[in-house]
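Data card: per-record layout.
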Amino acid sequence: MSEHPQYTHEELRGGQFPHQLFLFNMVGNHILLSIIALSNSAIPWVALGVPILSCIIFAITFIMGSKQKNHTSEFVRCHWRVALTRTKIFLLAYALMIAAVGLAWMLHSVMPIKEMAYAIVGGLGILPTMVMVLVLTVMESETLNHALHGRIPDSLRAKYLAEPAAAKAE
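The structure for this 170-residue chain is written out next.
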């Protein structure tokens, strides 16, 4: 693992920010806010705040990430690319959730069995999404720890920084 103490304070903050944003979305929004929203049965529409806030954070991540794509610091560039890749993976989990809800809705309109619809949404939508939240949270926590110490693991360096170097060589 490469250690580069020459990174400036601004570079370190720039490399940490995408992971902090991602972790806020995972822990603060998808875990804590979900529990609060779902425990408040008096206002069930509060639960819609979770995907809305998540979409706002996704938009911020993609907008800021596209600006950091050609950052002069390899440290900032690499950490943003990691966060963008993991955000895209999480968007796949959202797509799976939407597909499960759509499937449950279609099947429920043909066979009005409420329990079957709940099983489809829970088993094909909610469960994989929550597993993805937990896995990505652990992965991002580790990557944030690397960013806090000014490190780029060799595997991330090879994956995210080899491409621009090869393009520049041509």
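Known properties of this structure: Residues 74-110 form the longest helix (37 residues). The helical segments are 9-39, 49-68, 74-110, 114-148, 154-169.

See the next section for split statistics.
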